[in-house]
From TrEMBL:
The keyword Zinc applies. Keywords: Lyase, Metal-binding, Signal, Zinc. PROSITE patterns: ALPHA_CA_2. Its EC number is 4.2.1.1. The keyword Lyase applies. It is an enzyme of class 4 (lyase). SUPFAM superfamilies: Carbonic anhydrase. This is carbonic anhydrase. It catalyses: hydrogencarbonate + H(+) = CO2 + H2O. Residues 1-35 form the signal peptide. Residues 72-348 form the Alpha-carbonic anhydrase domain. Belongs to the alpha-carbonic anhydrase family. InterPro entries: Alpha_CA_prokaryot-like (IPR041891), CA_dom (IPR001148), CA_dom_sf (IPR036398), Carbonic_anhydrase_a-class (IPR023561).
Amino acid sequence: MMTGAQKMPRDGWTRTQAVLLSAGFLLLLCGSVRGGSDGNLQVPAAVQANITSGEDLCKETTQSKGNGPAIPAFNYASSGDDWTGDCQTGKQQSPIDLPTTDNSTLGSIPSSHLVRFGTITASGNAVLRLEIDEVELLSSNWSTANFQIPVCGGDNIGCLESPPDAPVEYMSASIVNLHFHANSEHTRNGNYYGAEAHLVTKITLNGKKNLVVFGTWMDVSSNKTNEFFSGLQSYINDTSVISVGSVCSPVPENVKFSIDNLLPATKTYYAYRGSLTTPPCTEGVTWIVFTKPVQMSITQLKALYKSNAYTSQPCANVTTNALCNILGARTNNRLLQPLNGRTIKLGSYGPDSN
Ligand SMILES: *[C@@H]1O[C@H](CO)[C@@H](O)[C@H](O)[C@H]1NC(C)=O
Ligand SMILES: *[C@@H]1O[C@H](CO)[C@@H](O)[C@H](O)[C@H]1NC(C)=O
Ligand SMILES: *[C@@H]1O[C@H](CO)[C@@H](O)[C@H](O)[C@H]1NC(C)=O
Ligand SMILES: *[C@@H]1O[C@H](CO)[C@@H](O)[C@H](O)[C@H]1NC(C)=O
Ligand SMILES: *[C@@H]1O[C@H](CO)[C@@H](O)[C@H](O)[C@H]1NC(C)=O
Ligand SMILES: *[C@@H]1O[C@H](CO)[C@@H](O)[C@H](O)[C@H]1NC(C)=O
Ligand SMILES: [Zn+2]
């Protein structure tokens, strides 16, 4: 098992492996190389070939329902302030505060270099509630159409540092997982949203895996039900097993998720270079955060908070006290990180894009 782990790139240490290993002391030894939430769960290709259902996926992921590890590799007691390694020393960390787009002075990404958002669907699903902190949608069959990421000059993902006329190659990204943070991780002009969804994708360039994470803010101020999240809710609101560790709920075969239903209609986005927002906080992640939030109800946000079993902390310590006091003290958002001179660009879709 150690051999298998050593063959993998640092942030390729998968949650599957962490979970499978966790029955013993190996997790303690390997804890420092365990993948972060943004990068992790990938079922090994050989096993993937045999997985078609959420049931299979759960079996591979946790071995048996409710029987996962209760050994948090890290927690949110200090909202990540106590995490070590790159989390402490990195200079291009995430999340960050993003400026408003009113009268924006952000450099813009030319229309010839915009991300192409087609469709993303998932079947053979499982909903995983991880022992440390979060709700994650896994699928044995992610399927994308016309969802493509621009790459300029062979390695400039998102074409962030390229002139407007730079030749571009569009690459299909594969989906790793969809997971949620509450409160939001990125802020807008210093303001938090109730939650933030992360769609983790990867593209391979010259044999190297590169993560591109799409962030969607979830705004509770209008208390409007999010239909996509409703579809997940029945798999996360069973509190009876929450203290046991990772819990995986298979989703019936006929239930498919269309991720486009979660993303905002207007796809104007911020783009910048950052990191995983969980240990080991690996850098080299391209972040695409939509400027428009989607809506979520207070009840739904409560359900999300409740599912974050091991993140409990006093409201005095969390980043948005007002929400904490309403919803209870559970957050899994990392503290904001300094920009350190990084450039944030804006990719605009249409005139009504603020
Ligand atoms: C996949 O399933 C086949 C048939 O059940 C089995 O022989 C094979 O060992 C499985 N492969 C893996 C990687 O589990
Ligand atoms: C909360 O913050 C206080 C003051 O900064 C600190 O003393 C305490 O250890 C923190 N509690 C946790 C659980 O991080
Ligand atoms: C944007 O510019 C308009 C017109 O100059 C001004 O009225 C408005 O206050 C500005 N908005 C921000 C957020 O600076
Ligand atoms: C995978 O998803 C695609 C698109 O939804 C669907 O057409 C196909 O039947 C699915 N395959 C399996 C094995 O479920
Ligand atoms: C949000 O809406 C629900 C009904 O969907 C209602 O029960 C609840 O009281 C509302 N919460 C607030 C804070 O307005
Ligand atoms: C979980 O939520 C769903 C609706 O999203 C509801 O149908 C189901 O009864 C709830 N289960 C529990 C245990 O509360
Ligand atoms: Zn995340």
